[in-house]
UniProtKB/TrEMBL annotation:
This is Aminotransferase class I/II-fold pyridoxal phosphate-dependent enzyme. PANTHER family: CYSTATHIONINE GAMMA-LYASE, TRANS-SULFURATION ENZYME FAMILY MEMBER. Keywords: Aminotransferase, Pyridoxal phosphate, Transferase. Belongs to the trans-sulfuration enzymes family. Its cofactor is pyridoxal 5'-phosphate. SUPFAM superfamilies: PLP-dependent transferases (SSF53383). Pfam families: Cys_Met_Meta_PP. It comes from Marinifilum caeruleilacunae. GO terms for molecular function: transaminase activity. InterPro entries: Cys/Met-Metab_PyrdxlP-dep_enz, PyrdxlP-dep_Trfase, PyrdxlP-dep_Trfase_major, PyrdxlP-dep_Trfase_small.
Length: 401
């Protein structure tokens, strides 16, 4: 497959401001005026495009960012939302009705797991959780009631890589949709080009990269995006997960540097992973030859952006993991905090935080123990210095054992 030039797509975005500014003007309005009453009615009924009615529907700032996201993911259209979870829930509720089923990855973000396992059953929508790195398990789980297959390109927090090409074939064979969360790996993967029908992002993470906002995006066909904003039955229209226009403008500016940041995140993560693995630690990182899907990411990923900015180190025990994270924060390596994709290194023990919604028995089955530390490496310039500080933290913690 020809490499998708996502960086060029972002570089070529051109949005002049209202008064000729190099950045598009921020439209800080909740509602919009019309010169003719008939025009308002026609816009409300969806018969006129290019006019704005109310910011819960569309506004210029959100439209700029949505168009940028569709370029990034090579889809016909996109919309932005108030959070990644808003993007996920709006998508699933638009597709599924009472009696429908979802086949989902067993290793996904804890909030997504809770939505699928605990919340959607209230509406008669059930989920079968499987290992999506096994196409056979996915095939066996799909039934005549399945409306969509859901996975993360790079799973949270185990960093498993799903072969989107295989899942796309299964989805098409069974007349259902493939929905892929690409939050962990923007620019590294282009899920739509691999066969995904819908690509979801938490813009909060790498795409914004500043840890200063919460936002999401849905990238898909024009038909699907239009359905989300239908005034009668569109989940994005009726549930109201609107993103503030000022935040949209901020994220759009940060998006322009994503290609630079992703290369640095990936380079730093690979350096640390190789060093720590050589020191004898169990490290999970797709860029390591020891990773089960190392060859897969080489085959379907965009090599120029590496293998991602996250890695996991296994310290076996919860207390050791906690002491290591506290030591790293004291050494100013980064912050003990949830989330990821920031300019600053962030680390957490997902078993007790972002994956705590998953029952302990299921976490143990997938290898998500309390001793795992997920590290989202920042944009450190001197990564050797970071490694030496991290190694010292590990030595201090392990010497206490």
């Amino acid at each position: 497959m020809e490499e998708f030039k996502s960086a060029d797509k972002i570089q070529d975005l051109q949005n002049f401001g209202e008064f000729g500014g190099v950045n598009p003007s921020i439209t800080d309005s909740s509602t919009y005026t019309f010169l003719k009453a008939n025009t308002m009615q026609a816009v409300f009924e969806g018969n006129i495009e290019g006019c704005y009615l109310y910011s819960r529907h569309w506004n210029p700032s959100n439209l700029y960012l949505s168009k940028a996201m569709s370029e990034l993911e090579d889809t016909e259209s996109a919309l932005v939302s108030s959070s990644g979870m808003a993007a996920i829930s709006s998508t699933l509720l638009q597709i599924c009705s009472t009696g429908d089923e979802i086949v989902a990855s067993r290793t996904i973000y804890g909030g997504t797991y809770a939505l699928l396992k605990n919340y959607l059953p209230k509406f008669g929508i059930t989920t079968r959780f499987v290992n999506t790195t096994s196409s056979e398990q996915v095939k066996q789980a799909v039934s005549s009631k399945t409306k969509l297959i859901y996975c993360e390109t790079m799973s949270n927090p185990m960093l498993e890589i799903t072969d989107i090409r295989e899942l796309s074939k299964i989805a098409k064979d069974n007349q259902c949709l493939l929905v892929v969360d690409n939050t962990f790996s923007p620019m590294i993967f282009a899920p739509a080009r691999l066969g995904a029908d819908i690509v979801i992002h938490s813009l909060t993470k790498f795409i914004n990269g500043m840890s200063d906002c919460v936002a999401g995006a849905i990238c898909a066909s024009k038909e699907f995006i239009d359905s989300l904003y239908d005034v009668n039955n569109g989940s994005a229209m009726l549930l109201g997960p609107v993103l503030d226009s000022i935040r949209s403008a901020s994220i759009l500016k940060n998006l322009k540097t994503l290609h630079i940041r992703m290369r640095q995140h990936s380079s730093n993560a690979l350096y640390l992973s190789e060093k720590l693995e050589a020191d004898g630690f169990r490290v999970i990182y797709p860029g390591l030859a020891s990773h089960p899907q190392h060859e897969l990411i080489k085959n379907i990923g965009n090599r120029s952006f590496g293998h991602g900015g996250l890695f996991v180190i296994d310290l076996k025990e919860k207390e050791l993991a906690n002491q290591f994270m506290e030591a790293m924060q004291d050494a100013n390596i980064g912050y003990l905090a949830v989330s990821l994709g920031s300019y600053k290194t962030l680390f957490s023990a997902p078993g007790g935080s972002t994956s705590s919604e998953i029952p302990e028995e299921e976490r143990m089955q997938m290898g998500l123990t309390d001793g795992l530390v997920r590290i989202s490496i920042g944009l450190d310039d001197n990564i050797e210095r970071t490694y030496l500080k991290m190694k010292e933290c590990l030595e201090v913690v392990l010497d206490k054992v």
